[in-house]
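Same chain as my last thread, 520 residues:
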Amino acid sequence: MPGKPAPIKKSPAKKAVEKASEPALEPEPAPVEAPPAEAPPVEAAPAEAAPAEGAPSEAPAEGQAAAAAPAEDASAAEGSAPAAPAEAAVVEEPLKAPTPPPPAVPTSAPLDVSVDDVNDSSLTIKWKTPETTGDSGLDGYTIEYSKDGTDWVVANAELTPANRYCIKDLTAGDLLRVRVVAVNPGGRSEPGALAEPVPIREIVDRPKIRMPRTLRSHSVKHVGEQINLVIPFLGKPKPAVSWFKDGQPLDTKRVNIRNSEKDSILFIRTAQREDSGVYEMTIKVDSFEDKATITLQIVELPGPPTSVKLVDTWGFNAALEWTVPKDNGNTDITGYTIQKADRKTEEWFSVLEHYHRLTATVSDLIMGNSYSFRVFAENQVGISEKSAVTKKVATIQKTGIVYKPPEYQEHDFSEAPKFTTPLSDRAATVGYTTKLLCSVRGSPKPKIEWLKNQMVIGDDPKFRQISNQGICSLEIRKPCSFDGGVYTCRAKNVQGEAVVSCKLQVKQVILPEGDKEKSK
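reply #2:
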């Protein structure tokens, strides 16, 4: 039986060459096994005697390794002739080393380092996060301090993530300089330090400005007015007071400042427009300070409108147009006053006051007269001293007027007769005069006729017919029993006719027998 093929041994030179060609930080590729062969292993002894040392000897070692490799492959191929042909060994290419990440960059310096609190044994400072912290983030802050210009001492043993830190166990009377350093994987940032050294001592009262309510937002004064602003404050020991206007120091020739233990007074004898601005007051005790601002506005009467012109004239009206004044008196324009004057009298009369638009129409002008117009500007101080006057004159022309009375359509009052009050049934007594009444309306005036039992009464002297203002009456003088029946009143005109009827009953008076004898 043929024995198992022994593994092919590699010379130390070949191993060194392969190890040198491998990339750094990469795992060594798996060894490639040679195909099985019946022939005994062939050793490459000459190459083992000279291990590679240094750069000059690497080239021969590589040549020897390359020469030994074909010999080993050939011997392996001869020994394995009876078997199936061996497949070529797959040689894996070495992996490339990954691109190393860019080095971490330190953060920018902490911002606005300031004193938050101080007493005779500790100092508390605060600051803001740096503008740039880098991709790797922020690990924390280191607080360092120096006493009287000595070496810097680290106050916190471990990094603090907060934006506030209290340095304890200090000695009263020390003059302390403090700085804050931001730390991230890229290292330390530039330090952010306090502007001035801080004396370690107890502050009895922190500085505090007590701004009066009337001055908290805005103060408006007139040109020529005296300004005397008293601003009280607190602080012990006595705070240092400073004033600025629009970020610049005050002009002491125009503005006087008087400071006392409890307040500061800003005094201007005669206010002018240029005194307007934002005044900032700052009080400071050591590293503590307080600020307050006052907006002072000095106003005066505005100037007149830039121009005014007569746009059009029609009928009894004139249209005006003007532009805003160049000088508004350092405050908003609140309105305009428009006046007119007849050229005959030259007397001015106000036609519009507190008017807000830049165009206006003046009406109710007198025919045949000519008018001039002027416009004043207004603000919260008052009306401008000067005005803008129109160059052209508005003349109201005389025109012939022919009065034509209105035409009214005559109303047709024609109406057919209609009884507004009908006749009522009546009962009368023989020998006693009775009267029948009704009322009728119609246009033209209707003609009235009375009927008894459908027969026209006519001019019978027993009956008296009266028609006055629509009231119709029929008087029956001393009726007898034969005068009873149905009476009808008929009214007629060109529009039609109407009738109304009633029943009249005439009763006989029956006397007792005794009364009859007495009557005889």
